[in-house]
Design brief:
This protein has 494 residues and is an alpha/beta fold. The chain has a domain of 263 residues: Beta-lactamase (3-Layer(aba) Sandwich). It is 30% helix and 21% strand. The protein contains 14 helices and 22 strands. The strands form 5 sheets. Strands 2-1-22-21-20 form a 5-stranded antiparallel β-sheet, sandwiched between helices. A 5-stranded mixed β-sheet has the order 18-8-6-3-19, with helices on one face. It is globular, with a radius of gyration of 25 Å.
Length: 494
């Protein structure tokens, strides 16, 4: 992939402002805002475990290059999901906001009287959003070719991404949690099953529906209802319905529940990652094809596109600008990893985490250089922040956000970020001061909490805010980060 060229005049002007910022950051730390300091102390988080920058979003344009706050700004910190900012901005610059993923579909053999006399081949190329609805559309287009029966096999080509040895449970042992789903060149419905529980008091049971249907998997259709009231007041007494269901979801051949469902819960939706990730796509595709009335004489299996075969059609994904909204608004890990791998998709040998790390590092060095003795260059693992090894400095991230702010990608990047108190992962923000005034990416891991993005002030000033806590008590320090954002809203208006 070629790096984009940038206007010389704007680059020089921005570089001057960023160099001034760097000099001021390195000149020494400032005192923390009293409210932030007090909340860190209340959370029992030492100041040395906190790092932050608050600075104008476009210093070269308004002449205000000195940061409002610089606290341990050059410290390399684990940013958790805030690292998605690096991945999504790199994607916008290297691929472009209109970039789409394609999923080609091939037919081997003629179609005679509704029968494909050969194999149907589906080639994955990394589409992060091949969800159930779009998989249905893909299979509907297959039927639109006049195919009712596939006489051979459905062949799945996943070779665009290098094979990985990682397991969904490697990070924290929670293999069934959707946030641990591993990337896949043919990622179908995030390798997850969505279960909907709907109580029917008249029958004394709750029905269970499953999306997508999985071929060859026995799925329990209902569970008994346990006692409970009705109405909104009763919903507060729902309790831990998942534990009460006593689920057995670890068997790839069966999904069963030994318990009951509380009537007080009303309808609930529960998504889990597949117990057999490698077998998920074959089961989902076969199950949906059958549900749509299609017949399959052979089986669904792994394979490759035969050389020289042209696709019958290609299924296009939503554009990257839309995909990064899902990645950042809802902190979708597997979508971020799909994008990260796509950054090396055109390199010899195909996409891999190693190749994508090199691609992002090369982009960063060409775009920002190696300031702070190279410490500002982010250390990436899988690009999603779901890692103990990823690192970035607040000042490095602030420089990137400043550059993004004066770039053509600014509207897409900013629109992808949660708005405090309004949507995404920040919808339940407790802050009243900054509600609706900040576009921020949040990040949370055991021992990590972080916020980074843009703050808008009532005076019309635009600020970049980065705050990261790395400490065992990090979750308790979230109010300190929210106080930092509130402080920026008020301080930036002075």
């Amino acid at each position: 992939m070629l790096l984009p060229s940038f206007p010389t005049r704007s680059t020089v002007r921005l570089a001057a402002g960023l160099l001034a910022l760097l000099a001021s950051l390195c000149a020494g730390a400032q005192a923390l805002p009293p409210e932030v300091d007090a909340l860190l102390a209340r959370a029992r988080v030492p100041r040395e475990s906190f790092a932050a920058v608050v600075v104008d979003a476009a210093p070269a344009m308004n002449g205000k290059s000195a940061p409002l706050l610089s606290w341990r700004a050059g410290a390399a910190m684990n940013p958790a999901s805030v690292m998605k900012l690096v991945t999504t901005y790199a994607g916008l610059e290297l691929l472009g906001p209109a970039y789409t993923w394609s999923t080609p579909v091939y037919t081997e053999g003629p179609i005679v009287d509704g029968v494909l006399q050969g194999n149907l081949v589906i080639q994955g190329r990394g589409d992060p959003k091949l969800v159930m609805e779009r998989l249905w559309l893909l299979l509907r287009r297959v039927q639109g070719l006049g195919i009712k029966t596939i006489g051979g096999d459905i062949v799945l080509d996943r070779s665009a991404f290098a094979a990985s040895t990682q397991h969904p449970g490697d990070f924290d042992g929670e293999a069934l949690r959707p946030y641990n789903v591993q990337p896949d060149a043919l990622l179908v419905n995030y390798k997850s099953v969505v279960m909907t529980f709907a109580p029917n008091p008249g029958s004394g049971s709750a029905s269970i529906s499953y999306d997508p249907p999985l071929a060859g998997v026995r799925m329990q259709a209902s569970v008994p209802l346990s006692a409970g009231g009705n109405g909104r007041a009763a919903l507060a007494d729902c309790g831990d319905y998942r534990a009460q269901l006593q689920p057995d979801l670890t068997d790839p051949q069966r999904m069963a529940f030994a318990g009951s469902y509380p009537a007080a819960c009303g309808e609930k939706v529960w998504a889990i990652a597949a117990a057999d990730p490698a077998g998920y796509a074959p089961r989902a595709i076969a199950g949906l094809w059958q549900e749509m009335g299609g017949q399959l004489k052979g089986r669904v299996r792994e394979g490759a596109v035969p050389p020289g075969l042209a696709p019958a059609f290609e299924m296009a994904s939503p554009p990257l600008a839309e995909v990064i909204r899902d990645i950042n608004k809802f902190s979708n890990n597997v979508m971020a990893q799909q994008l990260f791998l796509t950054l090396s998709l055109q390199r010899p040998g195909g996409a891999s985490f190693d190749a994508s790390r090199e691609a992002v590092r090369g982009w960063w060095l060409a775009r920002f250089g190696a300031a702070n003795g190279g410490q500002d260059v982010p250390v990436l693992d899988n690009g999603s922040g779901l890692s103990r090894g990823e690192r970035v400095t607040p000042q490095g991230l602030a420089r990137m956000l400043q550059t993004a702010y004066v770039s053509g990608a600014m509207p897409e990047l900013m629109a992808s970020l949660p708005i405090t108190g309004v949507d995404g992962t920040l919808k339940r923000s407790r802050s009243q001061v900054s509600q609706g005034w900040a576009h921020l990416k949040s990040g949370t891991l055991q021992g990590v909490t972080a916020l980074a993005g843009y703050v808008h002030t009532p005076s019309g000033r635009r600020l970049v805010v980065v705050g990261i806590v790395n400490h065992a008590n990090a979750p308790a320090a979230r109010p300190a980060l929210e106080a930092l954002v509130d402080w920026a809203v008020k301080e930036g208006s002075r």
